[in-house]
Design goal:
It is built from 13 helices and 15 strands. It is α/β, with parallel strands linked by helices.
Amino acid sequence: MTPLPPPDARPSLHDRHKAVIPDWVSLYYRRPIEITDGEGRHVWDADGKKYLDFFGGILTTMTAHALPEVTKAVSEQAGRIIHSSTLYLNRPMVELAERIATLSGIPDARVFFTTSGTEANDTALLLATSYRSSNQILAMRNSYHGRSFSAVSITGNRSWSPTSLSPLQTLYVHGGVRSRGPYAQLSDAQFIEACVADLEDLLGQTGGRIAALIAEPVQGVGGFTSPPDGLYAAFREVLDRHGILWISDEVQTGWGRTGDHFWGWQAHAENGPPDILTFAKGIGNGMSIGGVVARADVMNCLDANSISTFGGSPVTMAAGVANLAYLLEHDLQGNARRVGGLLLERLRAITASVPSVREVRGRGLMAGIELVKPGTDEAAPDKAAAVLEAAREGGLLIGKGGGHNTAVLRIAPPLSLTVAEAEEGASILEHALHTV
């Protein structure tokens, strides 16, 4: 047997990563960390350093790391059977679908499970274009909907859309960004009126043969920006006149994260729920779950066979059932509203004297800090990267994002965050902002 080289001679995990993983799979930090353990709102790296996690695996660890109820459900289900596919009856899948259909607010709802938010949005686009016999899609400027060929083609955030080739014709609408752009100086009511006029004009030029509008109630990758409440309700009046479907991308906003509502679309509920709702991330608390909810006539419009090999896996569904039950029983939506409100107030207080902070925005436990070069509206991505590094050194993990000429620190802890942990994270971030 060939002896192993001494530890100092072996390549690091980072070097091994670079040797086999594509260059476009980016890593945070100049010295990337390997996260090996987690509990509650904390994680540990391979060197044993403890961090307060304010990003939750990109808003995926929704309730808590190593939540006993979820790990127990996964272990027990894996001990029985791990996989069967949608070709067989699947009790955990039906149970989770029943709960989500009821919670969705969509009448006569049907639920199809996928393995990711990207795949969920792909499915929603397939349904909408088939139902409407049109490949034209309306999307919001600054949006992000996934990394697949069809999802990048409706992504308005150019830094996440690597190709202009597309199976769809996408037209972009104003409204997803409140504090920048041509309507930024208007009142909320005037902003909505101007965006609706823009939508009307766009539909007039296309003849109205559009399949659907897809929109994130709060734009995630784009930096947690959102329109005034009621914008999508106003859009819905226009869409309904043309028979155009509304797809609400709830991959990041769902499950009570915004605090005020269980779904992001409920801030725009005056004219009813969306026709199609997509979800993922938090429902699995780290397990690979995505899905689509739609009215029965929309969901059942496909005239060809379709299944999912891994969507609706018994193990991931068992995790989803347990995780959703914990979320509801412990009122984590209410906790997101209460603790998130306190956290946002604290973030605004600690950034008030920082010249490079243009805006602190968000809802519930979904906060963004936009950074600019002092005295300008020009994005400061180097500053954002430096703050990210400084926060990590202080024991806090956060995210970053942004759209056109914006750089945003993204903060989205598990929904079980305590007041003490919110204060601890804010203090670390305050130090990072003032030392960079």
